[in-house]
From TrEMBL:
Domain of life of the source: Bacteria
GO terms, molecular function: DNA binding
Annotated keywords: DNA integration, DNA recombination
Record protein name field: Phage related integrase
Gene3D superfamilies, alphabetized: Intergrase catalytic core
Pfam family, one: Phage_integrase
Tagged with keyword Protein transport: no
Domain named Tyr recombinase: residues: 3-182
Stated family: Belongs to the 'phage' integrase family.
Biological process (GO), any one: DNA recombination
């Protein structure tokens, strides 16, 4: 199987989420809940691995219900709206705040770096092998399957826009993404099972 084109299929999401939940319940697994939240954040936002890992609290705005990734692959600041799911996930993470990073770790960077061990544990518990980039591809595939506008897909995945935009335009742009983000959230939650709890 070509790992560059794999996704977690809709019918696999419930088992994958069950494995993720079981990971979060393992008190003997280092930073289990943090890894659970990290994987969920990527699935529900389409962020790249390091974009999620290096997210800072200064870039999370609970009042505006947005968060911003400063250091992106295309070097363009990426601001996204929070759904209720993401709001609760990040709010819960903030209750355990110990550093400037949402996902802190005793590493040189100050944040989590290598998710491989946690991924393998979730795969063991769920029977669903995956990579972090599979989560981003699953987000993209979900967006396409919902027939959301190509514009929304491009913006949500932070593909480079051809035109220059002002800060004011970007904020209006973010508001236009709330409904698409909510539709993606609703679909993913429905596939993970009808009784999935908001983090």
């Amino acid at each position: 199987m070509d790992r560059k084109s794999t996704v977690i299929k809709s019918h696999q999401l419930a088992a994958w989420h069950e494995g993720l939940t079981r990971l979060g319940e393992q008190n003997d697994y280092p930073q289990a809940m943090m890894w659970k939240d990290y994987f969920l954040l990527i699935l529900f936002t389409g962020l790249r691995r390091m974009e999620a890992a290096s997210l800072r609290w200064n870039d999370v705005d609970f009042k505006a219900k947005t968060f911003t990734v400063q250091d992106t692959k295309n070097r363009e600041i990426h601001t996204l709206p929070m759904t209720d799911f993401l709001y609760e996930l990040l709010w819960r993470r903030k209750q355990f705040k110990i550093s400037e990073f949402v996902f802190p770790a005793p590493s040189q960077s100050g944040h989590i770096m290598e998710p491989r061990k946690a991924m393998l544990k979730v795969a063991e518990l769920s029977g669903i092998p995956f990579t972090v980039h599979d989560l981003r591809r699953t987000f993209a595939t979900t967006t396409e399957s919902l027939d959301l506008p190509a514009y929304a897909l491009k913006r949500l995945l932070n593909h480079k826009m051809t035109n220059d935009v002002t800060a004011g335009y970007i904020m209006r742009d973010v508001e236009r993404l709330r409904k698409p983000m909510q539709r993606i959230r609703d679909f993913l939650v429905s596939q993970m099972s009808c009784d999935v709890e908001v983090p």
